[in-house]
């Protein structure tokens, strides 16, 4: 009886062991190895023994104007992207709040960007806004007599270079439906009798939004903000396909900068150190969002 009981207790560990080994091999080991790598200075193109430099990689990055310039560009990209994504997602969610004919068709159409790979979306925008042969510029030339240089470093009407504007537009196109679905999930949790009562009382829409819709949507907005902030900070594929960080360093976000440090300058020590600095920022910002947004919603 005792042996059988021990066997039953041991079985779960045996079943979990393969998954744990895979987690250790593909997640934990690379994480620990890369953390150790960030304290060394070495290059793959120079045959020399890695040199232990302790925190010099981190100190050089923190004091480098180049690093702060890339963070500033990333901040501009994240700020404009999140404002557009959340503004459009909230607008679409409110327009789809009630039942109407064709609602499911509209929702399906709005999900199309999520079904397309980000690289494919970037290629589509690269073709549409091509400065010489793109249909957008052909239309603008024939009807308005203008032909914007969409992938240049000239300033756009919103105060950012056109190349950065294109990156922001592609990111907004891809991820607005994701934010919209989270907001709609919060709206669907609103009790119908509460909505009907607000209509019977003749409340204006701004009061319905503030006192009826927003309290239910706020937790979902916080979750969407956390996910989108983390994902925007590591955006790479769309930027690299659209502009490769150019022209010059106009759209060289921090993720593209890390890639260039590792695979163009072959400075893996600095690249991994910068990756961990980004990780610290993500952890700090996530806790900040959770405290002020989720905590505020609970109160």
From TrEMBL:
Residue ranges constituting the ABC transmembrane type-1 domain according to the UniProt record: 71-289
One record GO biological process: transmembrane transport
CDD domains found in the cross-reference section: TM_PBP2
A Pfam match: BPD_transp_1
Keywords of the record: Membrane, Transmembrane, Transmembrane helix, Transport
Transmembrane region(s): 12-33, 77-98, 105-129, 162-187, 207-230, 273-294
Record membrane topology: Multi-pass membrane protein
Top-level taxon in the UniProt lineage: Archaea
InterPro entries, per the entry: MetI-like, MetI-like_sf, Sugar_ABC_transporter
Cellular localization per UniProt: Cell membrane; Membrane
GO CC terms in record: plasma membrane
Family membership noted in the UniProt record: Belongs to the binding-protein-dependent transport system permease family.
Name this polypeptide is given: Binding-protein-dependent transport systems inner membrane component
Annotated source species: Desulfurococcus mucosus (strain ATCC 35584 / DSM 2162 / JCM 9187 / O7/1)
């Amino acid at each position: 009886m005792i042996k059988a009981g021990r066997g039953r207790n041991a079985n779960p560990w045996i079943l979990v062991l393969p998954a744990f080994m895979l987690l250790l091999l593909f997640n934990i080991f690379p994480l620990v190895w890369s953390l150790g790598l960030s304290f060394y200075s070495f290059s793959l193109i120079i045959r020399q023994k890695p040199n232990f430099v302790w925190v010099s990689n981190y100190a050089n990055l923190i004091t480098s104007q180049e690093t702060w310039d890339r963070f500033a560009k990333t901040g501009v990209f994240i700020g404009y992207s999140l404002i557009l994504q959340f503004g459009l997602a909230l607008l679409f969610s409110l327009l789809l709040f009630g039942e109407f004919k064709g609602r499911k068709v509209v929702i399906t159409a709005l999900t199309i960007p999520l079904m397309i790979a980000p690289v494919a979306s970037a290629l589509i925008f690269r073709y549409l806004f091509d400065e010489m042969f793109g249909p957008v510029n052909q239309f603008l030339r024939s009807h308005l007599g203008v032909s914007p240089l969409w992938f240049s470093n000239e300033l756009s009407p919103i105060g950012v270079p056109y190349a950065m504007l294109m990156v922001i537009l592609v990111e907004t196109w891809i991820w607005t439906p994701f934010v919209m679905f989270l907001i709609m999930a919060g709206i669907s949790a609103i009790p119908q009798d509460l909505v009907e009562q607000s209509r019977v009382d003749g409340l204006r829409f701004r009061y319905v939004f503030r006192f009826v819709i927003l309290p239910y949507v706020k937790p979902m907005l916080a979750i969407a903000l956390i996910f989108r902030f983390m994902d925007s900070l590591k955006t790479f594929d769309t930027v690299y396909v659209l502009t490769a960080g150019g022209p010059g360093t106009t759209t060289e976000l921090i993720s593209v900068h890390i890639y260039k440090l590792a695979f163009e300058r072959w400075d893996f020590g600095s690249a991994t150190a910068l990756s961990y600095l980004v990780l610290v920022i993500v952890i700090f910002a996530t806790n900040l969002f959770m405290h002020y947004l989720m905590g505020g919603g609970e109160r």
